[in-house]
Inverse folding.
């Protein structure tokens, strides 16, 4: 039996001595007793892993009295090898905040009332029944990035929506990666088939529009990007970073090439043009595995490097040098990130990137790009069961779903546009769309119109502040889990391994895991999870069993048991067996020549090099090129810029992860010569104006920027959050107020919002900064 005091216990000296002897002779890990102090709980050590970004760094937690006292990098882990960043090592301070939600909340006007789970579920369930009775599609869900870092959260959330029978799912993917899913659906037959660079063997890596040193890798688990980049260079490999800013990554290794924001598609067209010109095609590879090659030559003919140089500003000579190095390497990879995806042609750009890797013979080739294997063949499973490959279309804009989700940038229109299937009820889970989506002001107005807004989160954030009900979720450290879905299901790992974690600390008061929340909501709403009576019956039974065996914990979904079942049925042992490997368990990694012959799920089993809709879209690029030629002059291109201290919108409620506004990152970054040109100096206030809005923000010089480019970080502007006591006082403006939303402003091939490369005017501020407003300006664009 363990005895775990929560406070030091005053004891007589003789008893302390006796207990000291007992404790030391038993080598109890739980208590420290000495002659001068009372009994205090000793730290327990627990292994876990970070669930903030794809790197999934292994961590060692010291837990004292049920609270995480410290997180350290796990030096012995086979995959992450002692790496962890400031965010991961300080995340417990976010989760231990007094701002954490501990009970369901109900809003009455601007007042919040703690209510019981019974009341919350009953009232939400009744409203869902009413709305669903009118029209199932009147209910929708927005799934944020944080949901993806839990195995069961997205599964149960989607299961609830399937039970309701709505097609209206939205996700944060249409802010950062839907272009990749749209490309992969067409080329490889499954959206999550995403080839990644073979970092251990590549001789040439060309990185476009991503900054792994700060953002970590994208669609690949790489724990220590600096080490990996230097490793390539040490082996004699060549690295190029193509970016409008000389990034931290470009300063780490390789060469940097400036590119004008939002012109990537022309860079890739010329790259392919030049590859053809130097006979850099692996004809056998193409003939054996690919279809549509014959359409590519004509497609790129109008785009020689000398022509595109005018808009990309990459000299033809430099582009030729890159192509020559790429073609000469025995194993080369082109890769990209959000810098291209958030532009206006992200899908075409990433498709051309993949075409180049494919026709040059680098796809499925050592040192080129590989396709991993997770704990099972997820692509085969998805295709067979129709998972993530649905072809439903949106009411507004007639967009085809990508990864079963519609564009987030049409959500406001779906709510505000009267008619059948108008969205009237919304569940938001693991995200804060008000801050992270385009045109937050319009979304704010739309969310305020809903008949039902339910937010599941750990905080009363900006979106939650508008909700009718807020449900308190567990933090990542309060739930058992398997690693992030990409390495788990898809094997996107540079060093392959499997891992599992128990919850490090228990939930407090009324906090519940999302699997339980959505199972309970399904029951309260009179629907079955996954629209399956059997599934709901099994989950009901498991919850009842849990309540019987562990009455104090109540009827929770037994997460470890379900994770164990997932491992068992995929032939990967059990959850308990994986826990026996705190430093990771070896797992088969991605191998060359393991993809093309067996795992391409297009109709003919070949990589589709020239999907009709992509070819048609390239034919329409002429107009965009002419427009690009015409733009410039006094206008700037606005790009985003990340700080290693914060992650999107959700890590700024701990002092350690903000640095405060002055020491933080929320500035308008501008080249000093550009600043002088528009009459600004370091520290001045600037007004930044797009076609949608104006924000007011302090200027900071950054000579790493390409001339004509300005940068602002995203995820700021928390002034409207009722329950973020640290973040709401930081000030800062929300860059996405400058981005447009609505069907006309969405990239039509993938539904991606246009969040980078936005044309803006920059001028000295017309007034003072309003620190209470998320736009920096009073009263326009300010919100509650
Ligand atoms: S790099 Fe990512 S996974 Fe690793 S500690 Fe930092 S936030 Fe966590």
């Amino acid at each position: 039996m363990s005895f775990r005091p929560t406070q030091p216990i005053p004891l007589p000296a003789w008893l302390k001595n006796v207990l000291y002897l007992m404790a030391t002779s038993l080598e109890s890990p739980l208590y420290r007793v000495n002659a001068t102090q009372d009994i205090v709980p000793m730290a327990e050590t627990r292994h876990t892993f970070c669930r903030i970004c794809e790197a999934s760094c292994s961590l060692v937690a010291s837990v004292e009295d049920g609270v995480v006292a410290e997180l350290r990098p796990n030096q012995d882990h086979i995959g992450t090898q002692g790496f962890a960043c400031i965010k991961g090592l300080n995340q417990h301070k976010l989760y231990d905040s007094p701002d954490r939600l501990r009970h369901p909340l109900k809003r009455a006007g601007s007042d919040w009332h703690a209510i019981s789970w019974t009341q919350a579920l009953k009232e939400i369930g009744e409203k869902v029944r009413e709305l669903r009775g009118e029209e199932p599609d009147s209910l929708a869900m927005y799934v944020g990035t944080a949901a993806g870092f839990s195995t069961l959260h997205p599964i149960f959330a989607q299961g609830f929506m399937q039970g309701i029978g709505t097609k209206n799912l939205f996700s944060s993917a249409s802010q950062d990666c839907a272009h990749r899913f749209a490309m992969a659906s067409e080329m490889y037959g499954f959206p999550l088939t995403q080839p990644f660079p073979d970092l251990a063997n590549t001789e040439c890596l060309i990185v476009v529009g991503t900054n792994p040193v700060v953002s970590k890798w994208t669609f690949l688990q790489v724990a220590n990007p600096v080490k990996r980049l230097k490793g390539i260079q040490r082996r004699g490999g060549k690295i190029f970073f193509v970016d409008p800013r000389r990034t931290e990554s470009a300063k780490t290794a390789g060469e940097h090439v400036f590119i004008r924001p939002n012109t990537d598609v022309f860079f890739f067209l010329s790259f392919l043009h030049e590859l053809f010109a130097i006979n850099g095609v692996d004809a056998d590879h193409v003939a054996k595995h690919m279809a549509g090659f014959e359409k590519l030559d004509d497609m790129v003919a109008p785009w020689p490097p000398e022509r595109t140089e005018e808009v990309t500003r990459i000299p033809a000579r430099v582009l030729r040098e890159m192509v020559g190095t790429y073609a000469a390497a025995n194993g080369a990879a082109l890769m990209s990130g959000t810098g291209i995806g958030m532009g206006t042609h992200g899908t075409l750009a990433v498709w051309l990137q993949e075409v180049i890797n494919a026709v040059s013979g680098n796809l499925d080739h050592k040192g080129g790009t590989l396709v991993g294997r997770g704990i099972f063949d997820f692509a085969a499973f998805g295709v067979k069961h129709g998972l993530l490959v649905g072809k439903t279309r949106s009411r507004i804009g007639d967009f085809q779903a990508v990864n079963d989700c519609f564009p987030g940038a049409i959500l406001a229109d779906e709510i505000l546009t009267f008619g059948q299937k108008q969205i009237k009820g919304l569940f938001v889970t693991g995200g804060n769309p008000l801050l992270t989506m385009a045109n937050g002001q319009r979304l704010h107005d739309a969310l305020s119109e809903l008949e039902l807004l339910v937010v599941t989160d750990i905080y009363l954030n900006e979106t939650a502040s508008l909700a009718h009900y807020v449900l308190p979720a567990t933090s990542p450290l309060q739930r058992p889990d398997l690693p992030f879905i990409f390495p788990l299901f898809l094997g996107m790992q540079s060093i392959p391994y499997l891992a599992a974690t128990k919850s490090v600390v228990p939930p407090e008061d009324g906090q519940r895991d999302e699997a339980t929340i959505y199972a309970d909501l399904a029951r309260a709403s009179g629907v079955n999870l996954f629209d399956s009576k059997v599934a709901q019956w099994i989950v009901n039974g498991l919850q009842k069993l849990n309540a019987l065996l562990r009455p104090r914990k109540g009827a929770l979904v037994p997460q470890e048991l379900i994770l164990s079942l997932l491992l068992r049925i995929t032939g990967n042992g059990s959850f308990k067996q994986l826990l026996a490997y705190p430093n990771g368990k070896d797992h088969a990694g991605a191998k060359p020549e393991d993809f093309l012959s067996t795992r391409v799920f297009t109709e003919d089993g070949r990589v589709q090099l020239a999907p009709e809709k992509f070819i048609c879209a390239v034919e329409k690029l002429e107009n965009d090129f002419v427009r690009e030629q015409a733009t410039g002059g006094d206008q700037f291109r606005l790009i985003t810029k990340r700080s290693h201290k914060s992650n999107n919108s959700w890590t700024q409620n701990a002092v350690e992860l903000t640095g405060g506004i002055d020491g933080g990152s929320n500035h308008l970054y501008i080249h000093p010569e550009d600043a002088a040109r528009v009459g600004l100096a370091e520290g001045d206030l600037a007004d930044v104006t797009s076609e949608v809005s104006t924000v007011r923000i302090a200027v900071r010089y950054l000579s790493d920027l390409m001339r004509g480019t300005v940068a602002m970080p995203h995820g700021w502007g928390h002034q409207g959050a009722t329950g973020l006591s640290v973040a709401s006082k930081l000030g800062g403006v929300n860059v996405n107020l400058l981005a447009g939303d609505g069907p006309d402003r969405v990239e039509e091939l993938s539904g991606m919002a246009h969040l980078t490369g936005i044309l803006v005017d920059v001028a000295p501020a017309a007034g003072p900064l309003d620190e209470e407003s998320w736009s920096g300006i009073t009263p326009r664009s300010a919100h509650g």
Notes: Residues 1-40 have pLDDT under 50 and may be disordered. DSSP finds 30 helices and 28 strands in the chain. The pocket of iron/sulfur cluster is lined by residues 50, 52-53, 55-57, 84-85, 87-88, 216 (CB under 6 Å).
